[in-house]
Amino acid sequence: MSKSLQAIRGMNDILPEQTPLWRYFESTVARLLDNYGYKQIRMPIVEFTELFKRSIGEVTDIVEKEMYTFEDRNGDSLTLRPEGTAACVRAVLEHGITGGGQVQKLWYIGPMFRHERPQKGRYRQFHQIGLEVFNLDGPDIDAELIIMTWRLWGELGIRDAVKLELNSLGTSESRGRYREALVEYLSAHHDKLDEDSQRRLKTNPLRVLDTKNADTQAVLVDAPKMADYLDDESRAHFEGLKARLDAVGIPYVLNPKLVRGLDYYSKTVFEWVTDKLGAQGTVCAGGRYDGLVEQMGGKPTTGVGFAMGIERLVLMLETLEQIPEEISRQVDVYLCAFGEAAELAGLKLAERVRDQLPNLRLQVNAGAGSFKSQFKKADKSGALYALILGDDEMAQQVLGFKPLRGQGEQQSIAWDALAAHLATCVVQG
Ligand code: ATP
Ligand code: MG
Which ligand is nearest to the CA of 264? Predict the structure, then answer.
């Protein structure tokens, strides 16, 4: 027998029983972003490989070992996007929409691809909602991004389970000075570093700071501190951010070891972390990248953004049982009709009701069946009410209206009065 076909490891189907929660999450975020004045942008899933190498940096985990890169039929090297910022910057430059200092507040949603070891909360195809703001360079906008996510956690009911970690990486000049000091210090302790950190010391020394290795962590205790190397401008920016978070009452912890995986960050970096998901604890991460647009060939244009992992946040809603009741019910009313004449009359009635109540979730029985079998399907659909159309009802031009969740007896409703009756008893979202 031939081997049955399977999905690629780390790339998941999101099944019908899961999609209501995904859609609830996505629509909650989309509404919030609309309300704060952000506009959606949609970029292709595939870009030239060069784009990611240039923006993310050659010596990052993503570019070194996580990209899905292939040659297309023209011989071009293409890559499935591992993140959204690079493509978003490419798009705004290509269309000139950040030129002359134009402010853009943009967001996107979609799948990202990284060849990582699949485990809970870590997949090879995963989904992000990301956001990028161009040409606003003050701490007020950094604060807005964080305030907005804080509101989101509140709306989702997971605020108590996440913690904000903050750091400032300074400008590229002050970071350069810090990097030198760090390399000098770590080089003097080279033998005590783990192998990975020894390698990073040469390629991307700041990343040594977020090592998980205990011996290296011990060496880091006395290492130079980034905060001591911050230039005045970065320091003032960071204070401005903290003052705004304090004003709104958002708690945070300063984490001097927070450096983020990507090369392009400057000044503010932040992560929202949780201890509810095991090792994959970061649900949203971002920061400022004032040098990136120029590095990618544009005019100097400041940027700040973040991305959140949808799988991890959906997992959190499940773990914390923050699943709103209304999303578990997909059907309001289920119409059962017995016999061909009743089926036709039912169909016409259903369409009339849909005209009048466009938000009503009305399911019409398909596949005929006995009274018992249709009734069973009505009940299983989760509907609040069944509408019944049989010979007696046809003769009297009424419908049987039967509560399925225990509220009261069956009653007869005239065809003409159906929409008005449903409007009073079905709560519409
Ligand atoms: P991590 O340290 O967990 O690998 P990262 O720093 O690589 O995360 P970012 O590139 O900042 O992650 O992506 C932003 C968010 O996207 C992460 O905080 C996380 O919620 C989510 N994310 C990143 N990689 C994955 C993945 N492989 N599977 C699921 N979600 C992911
Ligand atoms: Mg990663």
Answer: 1
Residue 181 burial (10 A CB sphere; 0-12, 13-18, 19+) = middle
Query: Has residue 263 been placed in a domain?
Result: yes
pLDDT at 180: 92
pLDDT tens figures, 378-420: 999 999 999 999 999 999 999 999 999 887 899 999 999 999 9
Alpha carbons 57 and 51: distance in angstroms, whole number = 10
Q: From the centroid of its chain, how far is CA 324?
A: 18
Residues 311 and 370 in one domain: no
Asked whether residue 5 is domain-assigned, the answer is: no
Cα–Cα distance for residue pair 26/218, rounded to 1 Å: 42
Nearest one of 311, 308, 303, 309 to 287, comparing CA atoms? 303
- The arithmetic mean of pLDDT across residues 69-76, rounded, is 97
* Residues 66 and 140 occupy one common structural domain: yes
Residue 349 falls inside a structural domain: yes
pLDDT at 406: 82
pLDDT at 429 > cutoff 60: no
Percent helix / strand / coil, the chain, rounded to 5: 45, 20, 35
Range list of H helices, 39-138? 49-56, 61, 85-94
**Which residue among 295, 319, 343 closes a domain?**
319
What number is the average pLDDT over the span 327-347?
A: 94
Nearest-ligand number for the alpha carbon of 120: 1
Indicate the number of domains in the chain. Answer: 2
Q: Ligand 1 centre and the CA of 209: distance in Å? A: 18
Residue 124, domain member (yes or no): yes
CA distances from 21 to 28, 274, 315, 316 (A): 11, 20, 10, 11
Q: Which of 29, 108, 126, 204 to mutate to test the pocket of ligand 1 (most atoms within 8 A of CB)?
A: 126
Q: Are residues 166 and 308 in the same domain?
A: yes
Q: What is the DSSP letter of 119?
A: B
Pair (334, 313) in one structural domain: no
| Residues of the domain holding 248 | 19-171+231-319
